[in-house]
Amino acid sequence: MEQTISPAAASAAARQRRPITDELRERVRRDLPEIAEINNDELRSKVVEAWSFSLAGTSYESLVDMPACGVPGIFEAKSGNQTDHLRAVTRQAILVADDYIKNFPQLDIDRDLVIAGALCHDIGKPWEFDPINRQRWKSSPHTGRPAIRHPAYGVHICLSVGLPEEVAHVAAAHSSEGNMVARSIENAIIHAVDEAYWQVMTAGNQVDPDTIPAAFRRP
Ligand SMILES: [Fe+2]
């Protein structure tokens, strides 16, 4: 006999999380080596905790298991995995920040916040990408598709592990959701390099053409 699962039970199952182990933390540090660039000890360890918390709430064991796309169906890169985007955005945000810090000292840029923010800007994506969640959202008219996009879910993760509001702001407002607010100076840098990444990948023919949003399509 076919077993049916009530929406409430399916939702409860989706919220089950794996324990956060030292092995998972170590895996996060290995997959995102730019974490070591964060000077402040507490901020650095909370970024590790945040990614561990994010992955442990999904069916992904690691970031390299996640496809290299903006979100499923949009900006699907022809190769690689999710760490390519996160690491490129972080490296480029550091380069941009360092240039401003050196040449425009009147700007008050917090380098550690740039690095932590860039590393955590997409921290809600494992939840949004998780095939189990996507199947659940597809099968119910009550949840929305997705129920919660990665910027909002990313805020939940950042604040749950005690990351500062400044980093939660980057998760919340690095994307088009941020068009409703005034972005922080660190988030302005991250937003710019995040968008540039997909423009450059598109120009370099590295994105499946069927997944390029209309506004980015080339004649
Ligand atoms: Fe991103």
What would you say this structure looks like, in words?
- 55% of the residues lie in helices and 6% in strands.
- The protein has 219 residues and is mainly alpha-helical.
- It has a single domain (22-208), classed as Hypothetical protein af1432, CATH 1.10.3210.
- The chain has a two-stranded antiparallel sheet.
- Helix 3 runs parallel beside helix 5.
- The mean pLDDT is 93.
- Bound molecules: fe (ii) ion (FE2).
- Residues 85, 89, 121-122, 194 line the site of fe (ii) ion.
Short account of what is shown:
This protein has 219 residues and is mainly α.
Summarize the SSE layout with pairings.
Layout: H1 7-15, H2 22-31, H3 41-56, E1 67-71, E2 74-81, H4 82-103, H5 111-120, H6 125-129, H7 131-139, H8 150-160, H9 165-173, H10 185-203
Helix pairs in contact: 2-3, 3-5, 3-8, 4-5, 4-10, 5-9, 5-10, 8-9
This protein binds fe (ii) ion.
Question: Which H/E pattern describes the elements?
Answer: HHHEEHHHHHHH
Number of helices: 10
The global form is globular
Count up the domains. Answer: 1
CATH topology: Hypothetical protein af1432
Which small-molecule ligands are present, each listed once?
fe (ii) ion
- In CATH terms, what is the architecture? Orthogonal Bundle
Q: Assess the beta-strand content as a share of residues.
A: 5-15%
**Intertermini distance:** 54 Å
